[in-house]
Design goal:
By secondary structure, the chain is of the alpha/beta class. The chain has a 7-stranded mixed sheet with strand order 8-7-6-5-9-11-10, sandwiched between helices. Helix 13 packs antiparallel against helix 14. The longest helix has about 45 residues. The radius of gyration is 59 Å and the shape is rod-shaped. The protein starts with 12 loop residues before the first helix and ends with a helix.
Length: about 675
């Protein structure tokens, strides 16, 4: 099977019409071309140029290039090859040589026909007792002296009659086929000639081996000596019972085999000429072979270089734009981009699979326009889509911000449901319309606000130092210290009130010592009532502080955490796993913190320890350290349930629980 079949060569066509040798010389040595003959052939209204030598064609060209299709070549060259081959075939000489060959033995054959009575129109068979022989007295006498029709003479006459009949028939066919041969029936008649000649050849070699004739010089004395061993003449070889009844003067039948062998050589030459479809088909295949050998490799190299130039220049980045467009179309249903991408991929397939058959210059122009169109459509759609996702992400961050700050406004829930519905329909809806509606949601979110709990801020500010002091001195675990925060806060507040009461009491004593206070029961009673009220206030205040601290231990708003981060020089980012999503989110957080001039610390946290660089601490020492030094900690935890846990009293912490997708989105980074 051919490795490639080329229909056209698509360059320098104007040179082919002027000089086909010019194009051929680009691939074939000039010395070789000079040994070729040229003929112009018209086929189905088109002009072709055939380069050939003797009867062997080498290259076929038309006005656009090389013709390499086997079937087409066959039909184009057949008339020319056939007509030229017929002119080389000398059928007249073949006919004359056969006549000479038969005439060389015709006298002996005619004599035998006459002697056996076969020329009288009679036949010789067992059923008619060899009637032809009995019609000739001499033959009849000899027949009965040699055991009748079943004897050597009778059997010889029957054999001779059959061979002569076959010889006559095949000679008739031979001469008839030669007389009828022409351009349209050459294959059929040549087959008849060959068949007849083969029969004539075999018959003329077997005819002399007949008891009617004497043995020729080819029968040796040794062979004749073996005849004594045959007791039954019917089983003896012919030469043992040879009668020499007819033939030439020696009783032999001889043919001029020199003439016959010359005739065979002449017929073999004619047979070697391309006169049949199979022979012409072989010549057509030779044209294909010559093209494959000399021209095709150079064209492949040239076309491959042209293809690589297109792929490396015009289509540089093809794979990237196709992959990105395909990925974008999995999220968006955009017929314009999809159709443009399909056209580009179809033409790319044609280019890379059929580059040997097409006009690469024209294809380069076509595919460049398609590539530019897809790139433009992708960039426009991708920009809008990314802006839409970015806006949706910003809206989500705003919603999280308000929710984490305790804003349970019904409008916030409505906006959340509206955005969710828009994003669910993003693959089928108009991306521009969705972007517009998301912009409206963003504007609505900007109208919401949060409130600050100033009393809680006061409690935290006033009590935090004492809480840290107690946590440091007691040596409790991190969780125990958090649990004791309300107690520490209440105790410190009560102590402060006791100190205040002590100050008031000291003032009372000073005033009393300097007789600034009237000494009577009513004044004493009022002072006692004052101290009682102050003590009650101390107890009530301690209880209120406990309640506020207890509530703050369980409910913290994002604003408080962000304020803590803003007021801290350092921020720790803790990862609990080495998953790609956690690592990616941690990287985003570190970049965000560095951008707001914070010194970010990456720590690894597990159940029992945490580590920073090469230093490892037990988990309680680690968490207590960050809490006591008021370094905010943002901890990332893989979880099937997405949530954010906030704390801002004994230290500041954010625990971001998220599945892979949400962790990868890293909303926590946008909240800071």
């Amino acid at each position: 099977m051919r490795k490639l079949v080329f229909l056209l060569l698509l360059f320098v066509p104007f040179l082919i019409n002027a000089n086909p040798s010019f194009l051929l010389a680009q691939y074939i040595p000039q010395a070789f071309i000079k040994n070729l003959s040229i003929v112009n052939i018209t086929y189905n209204g088109s002009e072709y140029t055939l380069f050939y030598s003797n009867l062997t064609p080498y290259f076929l060209l038309n006005n656009t290039g090389f013709v390499t299709n086997y079937t087409k070549i066959f039909y184009i060259i057949k008339p020319f090859i056939l007509s030229k081959a017929i002119s080389y075939a000398n059928f007249s000489s073949l006919n004359n040589n056969m006549l000479k060959f038969i005439n060389s033995s015709q006298a002996a054959i005619n004599d035998c026909l006459r002697e056996t009575g076969l020329d009288n129109g009679y036949t010789c068979t067992l059923s008619n007792h060899c009637q032809s022989c009995q019609s000739v007295p001499v033959c009849s006498i000899a027949l009965y002296k040699t055991d009748g029709p079943t004897g050597p003479l009778g059997r010889g006459i029957m054999q001779f009659e059959s061979q002569y009949s076959n010889l006559t028939t095949n000679l008739t066919n031979f001469y008839s086929a030669i007389a009828l041969v022409n351009y349209s029936n050459i294959a059929i008649e040549l087959n008849r000639i060959n068949h007849a000649f083969a029969n004539i050849y075999n018959i003329t070699f077997s005819m002399p081996a007949n008891p009617l004739f004497s043995p020729g010089p080819n029968i040796t004395n040794q062979q004749i000596a073996t005849c004594n061993y045959y007791t039954n003449i019917s089983s003896a070889p012919w030469y043992c019972v040879a009668l020499g009844f007819c033939g030439n003067t020696q009783g032999m039948l001889t043919f001029n085999y020199t003439i016959l062998n010359n005739t065979k050589k002449e017929l073999n030459y004619i047979n070697s000429l391309p006169l049949t479809d199979s022979q012409i088909g072989s010549l057509a295949m030779h044209v294909v072979y010559e093209y494959d050998t000399y021209v095709e490799p150079k064209i492949i190299k040239q076309k491959t270089n042209e293809l690589n130039t297109i792929l490396n220049t015009t289509l540089f980045g093809y794979g990237k734009i196709v992959n990105e467009s395909t990925l974008l179309l999995t999220s968006l249903n955009n017929k314009t981009l999809a159709n443009a991408l399909n056209k580009l991929e179809e033409n790319y397939s044609i280019l890379t699979t059929n580059y040997l058959f097409i006009n690469l210059t024209q294809m380069n122009k076509t595919i460049y326009k398609l590539f530019e169109n897809v790139t433009k459509l992708y960039n426009e759609l991708s920009t809008t889509y990314n802006n839409t996702l970015r806006l949706a992400n910003n809206n989500t961050v705003k919603m999280l911000y308000f929710e984490l700050n305790g804003n349970n406004n019904s409008k916030l829930a409505y906006l959340g449901f509206e955005q969710q519905a828009l994003l669910r329909n993003i693959s089928n809806g108009s991306i521009n319309l969705i972007f517009s509606r998301l912009s409206n949601i963003s504007s609505s979110l900007n109208t919401l606000h949060t409130t600050n709990n100033q009393l809680l801020d006061f409690v935290k500010y006033f009590n935090r130092g004492f809480i840290i002091f107690m946590a440091n001195k007691t040596g409790f675990s991190y969780k125990d210290n958090i649990a004791l925060v309300p107690f520490y806060s209440s105790l410190f507040s009560f102590f402060m009130w006791l100190i205040l009461i002590g100050i008031v009491y000291a003032i009372y004593l000073i005033l009393k010592l300097h007789h600034r206070i009237i000494h009577n029961k009513k004044v004493y009673r009022n002072w006692h009532i004052l101290f009682a009220i102050l003590f009650i206030i101390a107890i009530v205040y301690a209880i209120i502080v406990y309640a506020i601290a207890y509530n703050a231990n369980h409910t913290t708003y994002l604003n408080e955490v962000i304020n803590a981060i803003n007021n801290s020089q350092y921020v720790a980012v803790g990862i609990t796993n080495t998953s790609y999503a956690q690592f990616s989110c941690a990287k985003d957080l570190l970049n965000r913190l560095n951008n707001i001039d914070k010194k970010a610390i990456l720590i690894k946290i597990n159940t029992y320890t945490c580590s920073v660089g090469n230093e490892t601490l037990d988990i309680n020492s680690c968490l207590n350290f960050y809490a006591q030094h008021q370094i905010p900690l943002i901890e990332l935890v893989d979880s099937n349930n997405n949530s954010i846990s906030l704390y801002n009293f004994y230290g500041t912490s954010i625990v971001y629980y998220a599945n892979y997708s949400t962790m990868n989105s890293c909303y926590i980074s946008d909240l800071i």
